[in-house]
Structures are given as structure tokens and as C-alpha cells.
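Renewal narrative, Specific Aim 1. Our central claim is that a sequence can be written position by position from structural information alone. The example that follows is taken directly from our test logs and has not been curated for this report. It begins with the C-alpha cells describing the chain, in the order in which they were read.
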């Protein structure tokens, strides 16, 4: 699974915002047909890293390779044309427009949609239904407003759309964050489907319990640094949680507290 040339290869990526060192020397790979989970607490640098991947801004240092070639995207559109699709949490959908209208919305035409440059509602409805069905998503009526779908269904439509428009890399920024358990499970199933169709998926999340069942490898960020990338065999859920929280800092804190407790205990004995 992780053999052969990676789709994406990041080497020592560094990014500053003024004096804030948002990312330091981050290296990571992504292969076709794998789910790489990017985990980290608030401010760890997850969004910054995906914005670099998605072409929102370039890194200050380091190299970004796609199919072994160094790239420097000037815009998200350029990254999308190279097959890197990003699904943000707010999804950029228009709630009052139909599911199928949204399915086609704002996506650059690729060779696969050449004949459909004029909007043809019937064909759009049919294609949307077919594509959703291929992903195992059943939406009764694709002419219904997207605003009537649940959060999980909307995420699923966005994932199916990216797959349909030829994405090879799917970046999902906290797709399950606002969802209940059942809805999250639905989205996780579609992540697994995208992988089965050969895409490389980068799944950003705070939630180890969502990441662990679908992830093949886990990259853990803490305050802009990487603790490394681990396979499921190499790391347990508990170890991931500990690294996300800055495990060493917690251990140091526990030792410090134990020492204080000991000292006060000894002080208490001396008084007696
Ligand atoms: N445009 C910006 N200007 C200045 N500082 C920024 C900017 N974007 C991010 N940062 C800083 O970079 C660091 C990493 O932020 P980032 O948004 O990448 O974290 P995150 O892991 O996505 O966090 P969260 O889980 O809260 O979304 C933070 O210290 C943040 O304040
Ligand atoms: Mg973020």
C-alpha cells in the first residue's frame, strides 16, 4: 500500500506567519489508495498544512512534490487541476439550490464533463444520482434543495463530487467535527469508499475515534512540529491522544505534581 512512488511527498515544510512559526520541518507522504490522518490539537498547524497542499499559499521552506515532481501552486484552482481536491467544513454549497446543481457547481470542467457545459437539469439529476449511487449514497430526489440534507449527507455529496471530477487526492478538513455519531459513521464509510476507488485521502481531525477505524497511517502534529507518521500497528489510540496533547509535557507535569505531593507529605511528617 505504501510502496511505490507517493502521490504527494512533502519534505521539511516550514511556514511562518510573521513571528509565529506555524510549521517546522514537516515531512509526510501520501500514496494512492490510502487514508492518511492528520491529527493535532488546536493551533497544531493542521489547517496551515492543508492550505499549503491545496495551493492557498506556498511554504516558506521545504519541498512539495506531486508524482515526484516539485510543484509550487499559485492558487487552489491550479491544485485542483492537478487532481488535489479539498473539501472544507463549510463546503461552499448553496443551500437553496438542488443537490445536483450543487454537485456540478463551481467545479472546473474536466474532459469527463465536456458535453455538459450548458446546464441540463435532467442530465445533471441523472448523473448526480448515478454518481451518488456508485458511492453507496442514496438520496431520493436530487432536485431537492441541498439545505434539506443532513450534515453527513452534504459531506458525502461533496466527497462524491470530488471523486467524480477526477480528484486523485482528497483533502477533508474536519469533515466529522460537527456531526453526531451516526452521521459521522456515514461520512467515514464514504472516506473508505474513496480509498477503495484508489484515491489518496488526507483526513484532518481532532477526533482519534473517527480517525482510527479508517486511517492507514497517522501523522501527529503538535505546535507546528511533527511527532512523525505511524501505521496502525505502530501506534495505539491512547498513544495518539497522548502525542496530540504533547505527551512529554503531560508527563513532566505529572512528575512535578507528584514531587509537590511528596514534599508536602514529608513536610507534614517533619512537623509531627
Ligand atoms: N493567517 C494567519 N496569520 C497569523 N497566524 C496564523 C494564521 N493562520 C494560522 N496562524 C497561526 O498558526 C498556528 C497554526 O494554526 P492552524 O490554523 O494551522 O492550526 P490548526 O491545527 O488548524 O488548529 P484548529 O484545530 O484550531 O483548527 C496557530 O498558532 C495560528 O494562530
Ligand atoms: Mg484548523
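The sequence written for that structure reads:
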Amino acid at each position: 500500500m505504501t510502496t511505490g512512488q507517493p502521490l504527494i511527498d512533502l519534505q521539511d515544510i516550514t511556514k511562518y506567519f510573521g513571528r509565529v512559526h506555524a510549521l517546522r520541518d514537516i515531512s509526510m507522504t501520501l500514496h494512492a489508495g490510502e487514508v492518511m490522518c492528520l491529527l493535532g490539537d488546536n493551533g497544531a498547524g493542521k489547517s496551515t498544512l492543508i492550505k499549503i497542499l491545496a495551493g492557498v499559499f506556498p511554504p516558506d521552506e521545504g519541498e512539495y512534490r506531486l508524482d515526484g515532481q516539485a510543484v509550487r501552486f499559485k492558487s487552489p484552482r491550479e491544485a485542483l487541476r492537478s487532481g488535489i481536491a479539498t473539501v472544507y467544513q463549510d463546503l461552499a454549497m448553496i443551500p437553496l439550490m438542488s443537490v445536483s446543481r450543487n454537485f456540478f457547481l463551481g467545479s472546473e470542467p474536466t474532459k469527463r464533463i465536456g458535453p455538459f457545459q450548458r446546464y441540463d437539469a435532467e442530465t445533471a439529476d441523472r448523473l448526480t444520482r448515478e454518481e451518488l449511487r456508485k458511492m453507496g449514497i442514496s438520496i431520493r430526489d436530487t432536485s431537492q434543495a441541498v439545505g434539506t440534507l443532513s450534515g453527513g449527507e452534504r459531506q458525502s455529496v461533496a466527497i462524491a463530487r470530488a471523486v467524480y471530477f477526477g480528484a486523485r487526492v482528497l483533502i477533508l478538513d474536519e469533515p466529522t467535527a460537527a456531526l453526531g455519531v451516526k452521521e459521522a459513521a456515514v461520512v467515514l464509510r464514504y472516506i473508505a469508499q474513496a480509498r477503495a476507488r484508489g484515491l489518496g485521502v488526507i483526513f484532518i481531525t481532532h477526533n482519534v475515534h473517527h480517525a482510527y477505524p479508517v486511517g492507514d497511517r497517522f501523522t501527529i502534529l503538535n505546535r507546528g512540529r511533527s511527532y512523525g507518521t505511524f501505521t496502525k500497528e505502530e501506534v495505539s489510540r491512547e498513544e495518539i491522544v497522548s502525542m496530540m496533547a504533547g505527551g512529554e509535557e503531560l508527563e513532566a507535569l505529572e512528575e512535578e505534581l507528584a514531587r509537590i505531593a511528596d514534599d508536602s507529605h514529608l513536610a507534614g511528617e517533619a512537623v509531627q
